[in-house]
Amino acid sequence: MKRKLNEEDVPEEVRSAPAMKSGSKFETLHLDPRLMRGIQAQSWAEPTKVQLEAIPLALEGKDILARSSTGTGKTAAYLLPVLEKILRSKTTSTQRQVTALILVPTRELAGQVAKVTESLAAFCGQDIRVENIARKEDDNVQRQRLANFPDIVVSTPGRVSANLNNGALSLDHLAYLVIDEADLVMSFGHESDLENISKSFPKGVQCFLMSATLASDLDTLKGLFCRDPVILELDDDEKDAAGVTQFVARCKEDEKFLLVYVMFKLNLIKGKVIIFVGDIDRSYRLKLFLEQFGVKSAVLNSELPVASRLHIVEQFNKSLYEILIASDENEVLGNEGRKKKSNKVDEAEEEVDKEGEPSKAADPVDVPADDDHDAEKDTTNGNATEKSGPPQKKRKGPKLDKDAGVSRGLDFRNIACVLNFDLPTSSKSYTHRIGRTARAGQTGMALSFVVPKEHYRKHRPTTFPSTEHDEEVMAKIVASQEKKGKSVLPYNFDNERLDYFRYRFASALKAVTRIAVREARVRELRIELLTSDKLKRHFEENPELKQQLRHDGELRAVRLQPHLKHVPDYLLPGGTQAAQDNVGFIGMGKANENRIRKARMQNKARGKGRKPGGRNADPLKTFNAKGRGKK
Predict the structure, then answer these.
(1) Are the CB atoms for 430 and 481 separated by under 8 Å?
(2) Distance between CA atoms of residues 341 and 360, nearest Å
(3) Could you give the CA distance from residue 366 to residue 279 in angstroms, rounded to a whole number?
(4) For residue 427, is it left (φ>0), alpha (ψ between -120 and 50) or beta?
């Protein structure tokens, strides 16, 4: 890994990184001094519970199967012992070979793990080299990178299997295998890839299986890769003690948009927010809706190029924008085992404590229809078709990235609120979603919208199929949280106060048609493809310019109404002048008036700009017997 050198040819990080504080519990792990400096550069004061338990066992050479909640330091728990053992082996051998393989379920997580690995090994010079082959790139380029025999390879199972088949990757000298988010790897349908990988490396490989749940699928992985592993099932007391305040708001289908509008315009939610929606169309519908009120947001989904997804997460963590609208289609499909799509809630999930079993409920594949909410939808097979009449030709939707995911694994930082705009289809998915907030001892809030059954399909433009079972799913979620000693509180809102905002909300929502959503999807995808492919090399050479690239710009697929961006004083709670100052004010005239139209109006006032015989000429002065021309 190359590092920037200063004028004295000394890596800048080496000079700036302070030494590890004496008395730190990391010192009890007896790690290499270079790794200790890497830990200090990450500002990690103390090891987490899973790190204290797993690292000593890993250094003894034992296989490990660990369950620990999201955000408890599982990545460092397997990276530190792997890096330590590779550094020890360098003292006796200088041979270049792939020593460690780290498998993850999504490309986003692969990029994150590779980045953390490089950060921890920043002071190891050329003794540790890392390659992420989960990225979409030309096979010849990937073959060339693997030809340099990196010490650690990070990838999804599919890319590893493909490189094994074409001979670009060899695992003959593999010593360490890590499968991160192992339950999700299995549910994403990588069984055949994992079997192919298991046949390609020698016996005696030390294996690490890390997961947020101990699902039954892990027995398959344990049989394929592990030899009598040590099972660590950690309760993560510090994680459970972190304050996630959970709320549920029962509302009508269209009131979801109204509540979101009011919350952001009146600053009822402060800090960074992740909004989970059911599919890609819903994400753009919500973005276009918020745009009309001047609320900026970024969209994250599996349709976007992987480079854009990683850059969106990176900028979101740096607080370049506050609102991220995420649709995690593959996480839902993964819960089904990718075998059968259905709108029904999982009947096998009657027992709340069976958290490891996959859910049978799914969100429909988001394929836009030609009309705007007029046809009766049949979502049994995931496509929007008419129930009656002659068979319609199915429209092929855009190809989604099966190795994409949002609600699991990714390291979102300083999230103040997780908003379940569309409720997930299982309590397991709910747990992973709200795990995005209240991390590292911080507090956070989780708010979920639930549509009562009597209000389902009462507002067709905003209907979403999975909401039919919201009440059943929420009952399971409440029971699951009560078993953990947590409660889900009702979020009460004043309907009378909301009535003041309804005319603005209705005008904005009506403008967001299905055609506008489709145009926004195409426009955003075109922009991101251009950015990811044609400008990739330019950004590599000029990294400072990449920081200026934003993903929360206006799509302008809907006619913007300037007056909607501002909330007048009489709509605000209490109607105070101080509150008005917080939300802004708009005058009677347009802020972005057309200059040509303005000039015409001025000329009209002066009596200029019209030729005789024009549209406003006196008809009696232009009349003649032949019916045309002047007298």
Answers:
(1) no
(2) 7
(3) 6
(4) alpha
- Is residue 567 pLDDT above 90, yes or no? no
**Which domains, from first to last, does the chain contain?**
12-238 (3.40.50.300), 242-367+399-561 (3.40.50.300)
Q: C-alpha distances in angstroms, 546 versus 301, 516, 538?
A: 20, 29, 9
Nearest Cα to 171, choosing from 192, 141, 194, 189?
194
| Cβ atoms of 407 and 328 closer than 8 Å | yes
Residue 43 amino acid letter: S
* Dist. CA 159–CA 168, nearest whole Å: 11
pLDDT tens digits, residue range 348-386?
333 333 333 333 333 333 333 333 333 333 333 333 333
* DSSP structural state of residue 302: T
Q: How many residues does the chain have?
A: 631
pTM score, whole prediction = 0.64
Largest CA distance in the chain: 111
Give, for 579, the enclosing helix (H) or strand (E): helix 577-583
Query: 276: which strand partners?
Result: 326, 420
CB-based contacts of 354, cutoff 8 Å, min separation 6 = 348
Sheet arrangement for strand 206-211? 130-132, 152-155, 100-103, 176-179, 206-211, 64-67, 230-233
Bridge pairing between strands 64-67 and 415-420? unpaired
Contact yes or no for 361/219 (Cβ under 8 A): no
Exposure string (b/e) for 451-489, b if CB count within 10 Å is 16 or more?
Answer: beeebbeebeebbbbbbbbbbebbebbbebbeeeeeebe
Cα separation, 100 vs 207, in Å, equals 10
- Among residues 527, 500, 512, the alpha carbon closest in space to that of 560 is found at 512
**629 conformational bin, left if phi > 0, alpha if psi -120 to 50, beta if neither:** left
Give the span between the Cα atoms of 70 and 239, in whole angstroms. 9
386: DSSP letter = B
Number of C-alpha atoms within 13 angstroms, CB side, residue 88? 11
E strand or H helix that includes residue 277: strand 272-277
Which range is least confidently modeled, 329-343, 344-358, 507-521, 571-585?
Answer: 344-358
Yes or no: say if 35 and 27 are a contact pair by the CB < 8 Å rule: no
State the Cα–Cα distance between residues 157 and 191, nearest whole angstrom: 9
d(CA 416, CA 243): 11
